[in-house]
Amino acid sequence: MEELIYLDNAATSWPKPDEVYDFMIKFYRDCGVNPGRSGFDKAIEAGNIVEDLRARLTRFFGGDVSHPERLCYSYNATDALNLIVQGLLKKGDHVVTTNVEHNSVIRPVNCMVRDHSVEATYIPFDENGFVDPDDIRKAVKPNTRLVIVNHGSNVIGTIQPVAEIGKICKELGVVFATDCSQTAGAVPINMQKMNIDVLAFTGHKSLLGSTGIGGLCVREHLDIRQTRSGGTGVRSAYPYHLEEYPFRMEYGTPNMVGIASLWAAQEWIKKQGGIDKIYQHEMKLARKLVDGFKNIDGVAVYCCDNLENHLSTVTINVEGLEAGDVGIMLDVDFNIATRTGLHCAPLVHKQLGIDKIHGGVRFSIGAFNTEEHIDKAIEAVTEIAARAKKMKQTRLQSSK
């Protein structure tokens, strides 16, 4: 069977490194018990992996290394963002966010507006896909409690100027949160230097872990209100959920297989020479892909004129065809996996003016893609665009 060319890494990275698969299986076979709930050896060993990964990810994100307990696990970034939005906003507050956001921010914010009388302002991006930090500054009001920004777009791939936005938020005394779903593991993040108060991450994208694991990293000066309660495995006689971190933001049994996958992935990333080396490989392929698409008549490429401050995510449309139809052709005729539609980020598509044509076709490159994959993607889109042009000519002739 012909090899699948997988170009949907913005949805989830695939495949994972063999070392990640191997360690997940070995860990769960050898030590798949509940950590921190008992004092026997395997429970302690499982707990050691949990705590070691907390410390590693805290360093990885430039958090407060003396407080690794403030790296809290969740199911994914959406789960973490709900904890952040619901735990920071209350009636009468104002939140500033952007049109770049994923529904993991848009929907929790909108629910707070609808259900809790919170006020929200959405900042548009410019023609190149970037939010102007000055627009954030202008939007802040006396009751602004939170600014929350998508670090890297899952549609157009632009990396927002979070350091500049963070500086403004610090000056104005406003909490700054970032959705790092696309950037965690792809580009360097330093919470302290970027003045990020809290970030959300997921493990199954560029961090190269499994699905079902993510988290939030909370700076020492910030406390997030609890919105859930449950078991923690410690101080069981206490009648309320614990207020100290990490228990403040964690509930029930953690995803130990997911934690093991992230631990192993951190080892693999280090062996590759770090995320910079992986990023350079991905962006080399992204430049080749963009250049190829721009030379195809009838193909629109969005926000990729300059790939500086950009992820290896490229969204296009083929004139005369629905994005979904292009995706089906790529899959069925060329064995290329992409993602089509609105990508759970409807405001991006609306601002680009492609929401009415049901979004775009997204190509997202990962660590295991090759130049051959990119060549085949360009060839496939070239052929699909030629088909579309021929169909248009046929329709015009038949209408005469």
Task: Characterise this structure.
It is globular and about 80 Å long. The strands form 3 sheets. A 7-stranded mixed β-sheet has the order 2-8-7-6-5-3-4, with helices on both faces. Strands 9-10-13-12 form a 4-stranded antiparallel β-sheet, covered by helices on one side. The protein has a two-stranded parallel ribbon with strand order 1-11. It has 12 helices and 13 strands. The N and C termini lie far apart (45 Å). The chain is α/β, with parallel strands linked by helices and 400 residues long. The protein folds into 2 domains: 5-14 and 273-399, Alpha-Beta Complex (Aspartate Aminotransferase, domain 1); 18-271, Type I PLP-dependent aspartate aminotransferase-like (Major domain) (Aspartate Aminotransferase, domain 2), CATH 3.40.640.10. The model has no long low-confidence stretch (mean pLDDT 96). Helix 1 runs antiparallel to helix 8, helix 2 (41-60) packs across helix 8 and helix 5 (133-139) runs parallel beside helix 6 (162-172).
Question: What can be said about the biggest beta sheet?
Answer: 7 strands, mixed
Q: Specify Rg, calculated over alpha carbons.
A: 22 Å
**How many domains would you count in the coordinates?**
2
Residues in helices, as a percent range: 40-55%
Tell me briefly what this model is.
The protein has 400 residues and is α/β, with parallel strands linked by helices. The chain contains twelve helices and 13 strands.
Task: Using brief descriptors, characterize the structure shown.
2 domains, 14% strand, globular, four-stranded antiparallel beta sheet, Aspartate Aminotransferase, domain 2, 13 strands, 42% helix, 400 residues, Aspartate Aminotransferase, domain 1, seven-stranded mixed beta sheet, single chain, alpha/beta
